[in-house]
Write a structure and sequence with these properties.
With about 210 residues, this protein is mainly α. It has eleven helices and no strands. The protein is globular and about 55 Å long.
């Protein structure tokens, strides 16, 4: 089933429930004081995310349904900073915790701003209206925001590029980790593939902005 005349209006108007929390609002207000204060992300603000009733969204839900189930993988990649710290430990590299934390804190307000602007419902919400049963729908704290774009994809790619440039001896591992973090959000049925794609693009843009400043 895709949609019927009975539920098409519901599908079209569906948004992520609720409003930004005080903590999320504080993150958005902190943009002007962070390392990305001068970063222009207006092109991401103005882009059109896939409509709820579009064929693209329908097929993205079908794609998520067909993905393998791996809850351990999803939970492991949920802790973005820890993932990169583990690679540093494995390779005998000093983990630049202060730098990574600065990047995460600096970018999270931008990500929250974009999420609440586009206000795309999570896959689990729309899948019920389409009668597509998504298995392995974990509910982690990091999933309690609108869906577009994927913050894990943006942050994972950003940090992977920064660390790959800083420590070229482990560059391939860092880059792979960024992609794995992004993909884990699809495995967890937390994000549509288009959320991840745009999130990765945002992460790349943030890296291009910051690479000569750190």
């Amino acid at each position: 089933m895709m949609y019927t005349f009975e539920n098409i209006d519901t599908i079209k108007s569906l948004k992520y429930p609720g409003e930004p929390s005080k903590k999320q609002i504080k993150k958005m207000e902190s943009i002007k004081n962070g390392v990305f204060a001068e970063f222009d992300y207006s092109n991401f603000m103005h882009m059109s995310r896939p409509a709820n009733e579009s064929l693209q969204t329908y097929y993205e839900l079908k794609t998520l349904k067909a993905l393998p189930i791996d809850e351990d993988f999803v939970k492991e990649k949920d802790e973005v900073e820890k993932c990169f710290e583990n690679i540093c430990i494995k390779n005998g590299i000093e983990y630049p915790k202060e730098l990574v934390t600065k990047l995460v804190k600096g970018g999270e307000g931008i990500i929250q701003d974009l999420k609440w602007h586009h206000n795309r419902p999570r896959p689990i919400q729309l899948s019920k209206e389409y009668e597509i049963k998504l298995t392995n729908q974990l509910v982690l704290d990091s999933m309690k925001t609108p869906s577009f774009p994927s913050g894990h994809s943006a942050t994972g790619i950003l940090i992977s590029k920064v660390l790959a440039n800083k420590y070229p001896q482990a560059s391939q591992e860092f880059i792979k980790e960024g992609k794995d973090i992004s993909y884990s959000r699809n495995i967890g049925r937390a994000h549509y593939p288009s959320d991840s794609k745009v999130g990765e693009s945002l992460g790349n843009s943030m890296y291009q902005f910051i690479k000569d400043k750190i």
